[in-house]
Amino acid sequence: MSPAKTDDQKSSIDVWQLSEEKFEVEENLLRETLFSLGNGHLGLRGAHEERFRGFSNNTNDHTFINGFYESSLIHYTETAYGMAKEHQFMLNVPNGKCITFAADKENFDLFKGTINHYDRKFDFQKGSLLRKVDWTSEAGKQFVVKSKRVVSFTRPDMFALEYEIKSVNFTGIITLRSALDGRVEDEESGEPRYGPAVGAVQGVNLILLEKKQTEDFSALLHQTKRSKLSLASAQENSLYLGNAKLIEKDSASSSESVEQVFKIEVKAGDTIRLTKFVCYITSRDYPEAELLDRAKSTLAAARKSGFAILCEEQESYLNEFWKRADIEIGGNDLVQQGLRFNQFHLLQSVGRDGHTSIAAKGLTGEGYGGHYFWDAESYALPFFLYSKPEIARKMLEYRYSCLGESRKRAREMSHPKGALFAWRTIGGEECSAYYPAGTAQYHIIADITYAIKHYFEATEDEEFLVKYGAEIVLDTARIWMDIGHYEPRKNNAFCIDMVTGPDEYTVLVDNNFYTNAMAQMHLKFAAELAKKLKASSPTDFERIKDTIELTDDEPEKWLKAAEKMYLPFDEQLAIHPQDDTFLSKKKWDLKATPPQLFPLPLHHHYLVIYRYQVCKQADTVLATFLLGDKFTMKEKKQDYDYYETITTHDSSLSHCTYSIMASEVGYLDKAYHYFTQSVRMDLDNVHGSSSYGVHIAAMGGTWMAVINGFAGMRAYGGKLQFAPYMPTAWDSYKFKLSFKGQLLEIAVGKEEVKYTLIEGDALTFNHHKIEVKLKGANASQTFPTKAQELASTASTKRKDDA
Amino acid sequence: MSPAKTDDQKSSIDVWQLSEEKFEVEENLLRETLFSLGNGHLGLRGAHEERFRGFSNNTNDHTFINGFYESSLIHYTETAYGMAKEHQFMLNVPNGKCITFAADKENFDLFKGTINHYDRKFDFQKGSLLRKVDWTSEAGKQFVVKSKRVVSFTRPDMFALEYEIKSVNFTGIITLRSALDGRVEDEESGEPRYGPAVGAVQGVNLILLEKKQTEDFSALLHQTKRSKLSLASAQENSLYLGNAKLIEKDSASSSESVEQVFKIEVKAGDTIRLTKFVCYITSRDYPEAELLDRAKSTLAAARKSGFAILCEEQESYLNEFWKRADIEIGGNDLVQQGLRFNQFHLLQSVGRDGHTSIAAKGLTGEGYGGHYFWDAESYALPFFLYSKPEIARKMLEYRYSCLGESRKRAREMSHPKGALFAWRTIGGEECSAYYPAGTAQYHIIADITYAIKHYFEATEDEEFLVKYGAEIVLDTARIWMDIGHYEPRKNNAFCIDMVTGPDEYTVLVDNNFYTNAMAQMHLKFAAELAKKLKASSPTDFERIKDTIELTDDEPEKWLKAAEKMYLPFDEQLAIHPQDDTFLSKKKWDLKATPPQLFPLPLHHHYLVIYRYQVCKQADTVLATFLLGDKFTMKEKKQDYDYYETITTHDSSLSHCTYSIMASEVGYLDKAYHYFTQSVRMDLDNVHGSSSYGVHIAAMGGTWMAVINGFAGMRAYGGKLQFAPYMPTAWDSYKFKLSFKGQLLEIAVGKEEVKYTLIEGDALTFNHHKIEVKLKGANASQTFPTKAQELASTASTKRKDDA
After folding, report:
1. Given an 8 Å threshold on Cβ–Cβ distance, is A608 in contact with B80?
2. Phi and psi for A180 in degrees, rounded to 5?
3. 3-state secondary structure of B468
4. Closest CA to A79 of B191, B188, B85
5. What is the pLDDT of residue A56?
6. Is B596 an interface residue toward A (CB < 8 Å)?
7. CA distance to A152, A384, A620, per residue, from A362 (Å)
8. What is the mean pLDDT for each group of 10 consecutive residues in chain B (802 residues)?
9. Which residues of chain A lie closer than 8 angstroms to B82, CB-CB?
10. Considering only CA atoms, which of A161, A196, A197, A143 is closest in space to residue A37?
11. Distances in whole angstroms, Cα of residue B341 to Cα of each of A387, B14, B364, B609, B699
12. If DSSP states are collapsed to H, E and C, what string results for B315-333?
């Protein structure tokens, strides 16, 4: 693990890109992750076009399609009823990047000869990966090779590549090969954290059904063995020759790959350029019979437009994105770069077709099997909700698409009514092979409801609510009624038994505070929603009622359960206990635990960890953030103080939450410290695991640490409020939020905070406790940045919160 | 499932044997279990010699060697540190029973032709399985075929078979084949209860290394693939011809089998007889290089003795056994037969070589992988302890042999000191793939200690204690100190966190009452033992201290923890709560649950079951039995009343415990009812699962239900006490107990109870509250059987206990 760099090396950082100046084998696996390009549908790890053999184990040259998976049966040596049956894992699909060339049989190979110059630039602003290499072969042939790669945001099924070779001193024949390589296999990882490739079936999972090879168009049609999903992958190549001369053009084809081969006569000084378009069309999006035709027409259209137009489209899409999503930091380029890198990766990873979402490692690695978890709604969705709300909606539509499977799962779990979302899944089926830290995390239904509630409050998108959201909220609310009960021993409070909260270092508990508090929100919102819809959209409400067989008395029961919800509070410590038995366990001595024994589960059996008061991540503290209007500042601070001392932050979801709450309760140094652990988590490989993919939740959480943390944004009850302060390490920060169809800019400087209504007519919100009303385009209001808010010692409490 | 038969059909039952009068295909699988013969080392399911093909799936013709296993890696889709790595499973070994014959090419086959007479007798008194068949072939050839099978108790490595053919009307050539069939495979079961054949590797697990075939001796040498255990199996045949004439004698051999073939000319009326000796020698007992030679000498010795001598040895061994172990029931033959059947199977199943013990299904099936559980010490050992204490000692020596593996396991579980026994194992390694109902059952170390304590008290075997027992008790005691802590919130009581008690329908709890109470016993006994040994055997004590690196302060700490042990008691209900959170869960509505939904885990996810107050088996109630001197009668009754209503008895370990405690608290009808559920559990296939093997724990528990239940025997502090009463369904019962080298007979009649000292000089014990002292051989004392003890209504409480 490396420390995050956020306070030094402020100069020489390009805040709009990540660059690499040296060809370093041992860094390659990490760089492949960082340089991954994607568009939410496709994802290409940042491997070299040439598949240099010298990397051996330092490469993982994989290509992914969001939601395109194979499945396998989960095997249990001791099985039991209702255990998740099926593992799903995101597949490595044919590699369309492949380009190699040889000059008179001497291959272009960075592991041989001399590298005169090397650089790569991963450009967040333009959405491309560029490489430039000046190289001399062992025999003395010199070439300048440039490539540019774009995974198109505007054409989700495809990517494009431009590959330029300038011969500095070579005259002779260049053999240029461009392949679509179907010899792809999947790997199983033995590493629990990246795991669940652990459930992947090692080896070849795609069966070749058909191969097409015409002069310009090559395609492969594959099908998965068990999930029976089909995929057409295809490529087209076009060549700019300049003064060079095409001698021969041929198609080669091995058993699993297609390739186009060009023999070109070049003279010293000549430049040739190959443009390549590659597309992937799957049966999750289109009828199987159409796949190859659609591949052909997609590539034909791209070719007609040309590479330059694709690049323009890409830049224009990203211009629009950054205009609304960018956070500008004054005076800290490392943070600036980290934030943009994170937001760019979030944008690249998120599905937006209504049947995919955002995986734990996005489209940059197969860790966690490419599964969607609660992280999607709880950590990634807020960024989209306030920056690109149409994507947030699509993420929630994805959950709607899983309702059928979730109802089946609820029956399997003996719930007579309702829908229970899978803890981890791609297609909707529960894929959690370790249920204590999987299926038992019932809070996922409340997390999704929370996202729906906030989506609706921030967008007022009635159509979504009526068409998708309400059905999810109402049908999942019923699950609480089945797993909870009114407990005479607890004053007839509504108790929820046998669940696991977000902190997976304690499992199968009664009355997990987070779960109960979120269930309370869920039940209350569901009851109110039923009432609201009955009045406002009676026809739709009847339709939903019919669909889920909702009886008239259910909403009342939900309301009662919400009112009587048991929210444990310990008088002695004046904190919320994490669950019924948490406080009577020993505390783990974190200070006495050497760094190499973290994360704990890699060195201790779960039983050992579960025996202690020790948290993997924010649990109760997360509840005090998400449901912040339900708790006093004193409660928040007491909970923070207690749980911080026993939290390992072994989860990448932890730092950002602690940062936000440290901001709220006034521990400004800590807030910044946790923020730094998160903002460059992947760039600096803080957890040592970024080689296997980025940490999507931390990326989203970093955005939250700025917006909800430093700027103190909350949206309780559909009204924005801010309590901005300035981290001492910065000079200023500025960001925009989309809210109810309007666009608000918040610029925080050392002297003043300025709110500007960039789009929209009128917006009312709070600055600290002051209500601000902006009317008319570009209306703005300015407040002084309070001096005391610059103070930042661990014990400083912000005055206005006292 | 069938109801147990215990009150009808009293006549026509042979109380010394189980017989079968009809050839019934659909009963075959069950009969194979019931008719299994074994000697604690070998086990042969009661299949027919001829391996008739007509049985198809209704046979499971397996042969087992106690402790002879293959291993496989346990695969977890989501794995974690410290999870059990290896599954071990008892193997199906070469089948040496095989005999077939043909008369002029017409095979003897009960699925063809006509059965004129058929019977089998499974004889508990003589230890043999006899079959007699009178059969006419389709072509009209009639034969009377008799076989007798003996698995020798006196020669543990072998069994013998006599196979007699009388030709009634056939004159011609009989081809008689006797094979040792090495084409054995293992099966995987999908049925969780018989399970862990679930972890078995399907298919061939024995690799043939060598085959020997001389005129009289045929042998196979196998090795397992992964556990690398070797096995020599061998057979010898000898033929009695009478008037018949041997035409040809040949050895045949297929790739995996050896066979001797005899062609015999017979005339109508002739009788021929094949005697067969088969032995199995494994590398768990002898050096690998000696296996084949030992097989040869074992068979040579047997042949020299001859079949008749073997049968005599067998009868004599069993005579001695029954003399000390028999329970004689007056007036209920079904119960009498059931008890003897159970005790015979216990004797047949238990290992007695110091490196094996008794598996959950004995040597009658591969269910539960042939693993040893706590059942061995807690349910089977008491029978041996008081009937054949030398076997109880060997069972405990087996645990000693596992100390090395148990120490390794303790380190894996982060315990810096001490030994942690595997929840389920053959070789000592933890094989539990579902740790919440496996590894988490830490009570196993206390259960084994309890057995050692009682073994020592009942035998005063100092040598065992010093050589084996003390080291186990002391080294395992330390585990409690690591998983427990003094909890300020519980008045600084010693609390034990994150364990599972015997009731597997609640897991991973804090302060499981059973576990805490047993741990208290364990810690106290360990501390006392250390003190005692230090004084009485200082040299040995120093040796043990050195071996386990015991520090001087440890025993004091154990004593303090025992004194401060937290034993939860609920004032409101006046019961011991099963654990810290048990009483605040919903109660499962057992009355509303239809019979077909039991056992619950076959129809509900564990999470559902864990959410309720519902018990698979006696848990707290078991503690009130085992540690009965620690609780008042009122406490016992209150606990019984509470837990009985929420117990499903899905475990075969439950009925006997409830029967014992029903006897103690005075629910005599219930005591007898639970006893009936247990005494013929396999004979009547009460749980529907006996086809896959007998229920060893229930067999031992049945003995306890009589001795500890009806006769009220306890041995608190090494002193016997009795409180006998007479179940109304019986006229009398009589049994003997070995205690401190003496033999006491207890005869209970309707009028009087008579105690007789059969062996030994003097014994002091209690009858009810009266101290009885018997001095001199055959000294006896008689007490009236109190009239009120015959009362038996569900609510009757025995007066002397009030």
Report:
1. no
2. -115, 110
3. helix
4. B191
5. 83
6. no
7. 16, 14, 27
8. 50 89 95 98 97 90 96 87 93 96 96 98 97 98 98 97 98 97 73 51 86 89 96 96 95 85 97 98 96 96 97 98 97 96 98 97 93 97 98 98 98 98 97 96 98 98 98 98 97 98 97 98 98 97 98 98 97 97 96 93 96 97 98 97 96 95 96 95 92 95 98 96 95 98 97 96 95 95 72 38 36
9. 604-608
10. A161
11. 76, 11, 13, 35, 9
12. HHHHHHHHHHHCEEEECCH
Task: Quote the CA–CA distance of B471 and B529 in Å, as a whole number.
Answer: 10
- Nearest by CB to residue A192, choosing from B79, B507, B580, is B79
Cα–Cα dist B529/B548, whole Å: 15
Q: Indicate the pairing of strand A762-767 with strand A721-722.
A: parallel
Optimal mutation site among B72, B77, B650, interface A, most CBs of chain A within 10 A:
B77
Contact A87, A368 (CB under 8 A): no
Structure tokens belonging to residue A3 = 């420390």
Q: Please name which of A308, A178, A315 lies closest in space to residue A251, comparing C-alpha atoms.
A: A178
- Nearest residue on chain A to B492, alpha-carbon basis: A584
Interchain contact, B77 vs A87, CB within 8 Å: yes
Residue A242 CA neighbour count, 13 Å, CB half: 16
How distant, in Å, are the alpha carbons of A152, A452, A658 from that of A682? Answer: 23, 29, 19
Q: Given CB atoms, is B78 within the 8 Å cutoff of chain A?
A: yes
From the CB of residue B501, how many other CB atoms can be counted at a distance below 10 Å?
29
CB A204 within 8 A of CB A181: no
Assigned token pair, A792: 């930042």
CA–chain centroid gap for A161, Å, is 25
What letter does residue B92 receive in the DSSP assignment?
Answer: P
In the chain, the amino acid numbered B760 is G
| pLDDT tens figures, B320-345 | 999 999 999 999 999 999 999 999 99
d(CA B67, CA A260): 63
Asked whether the bond before B594 is cis by omega within 30 degrees of 0, the reply is no
CA distance A374 to B55: 53
> In degrees, to the nearest 5, what angle opens at C-alpha A15 toward C-alphas A9 and A20?
75
Whether chain A has a CB inside 8 Å of the CB on B486: the answer is: no
Residue at A198: amino acid letter? V
> Angle at CA A437, nearest 5°, toward A434 and A438?
70
Residue by residue, what is the 3-state secondary structure of A71-114? Answer: EEECCCCCCCCCCCCEEEEECCCCECCCEEEEECCEECCCCCCE
pTM, full prediction:
0.94
- Amino acid making up residue B515: T
Facing B583 at nearest CB: one of A412, A489, A601: A489
CB B723, CB B712: distance < 8 Å? yes
ipTM value greater than 0.90? yes
CA dihedral A548, A553, A555, A556 (to 10 degrees): -170
Burial class (CB in 10 A: 0-12, 13-18, 19+), A549: exposed
Residue A761: count other Cβ atoms within 10 Å of its Cβ: 12
- Does the CB of A783 have a partner CB in chain B at under 8 Å? no
Q: How many residues does chain B have?
A: 802
The encoded tokens of residue B393 equal: 């000692």
Residue from A597, A607, A614 to probe the interface with B (highest B Cβ count within 10 Å) = A607
Q: What letters, b where the CB count within 10 A reaches 16 and e where it falls short, cover B420-444? A: bbbbbbbbbbbbbbbbbbbbbbbbb
Tokens representing residue B221 in the block: 């040498």
Mapping DSSP to helix (H, G, I), strand (E, B) and coil, where does residue A559 land? Answer: helix
- The order of strands in the sheet holding A762-767 is A721-722, A762-767, A770-775
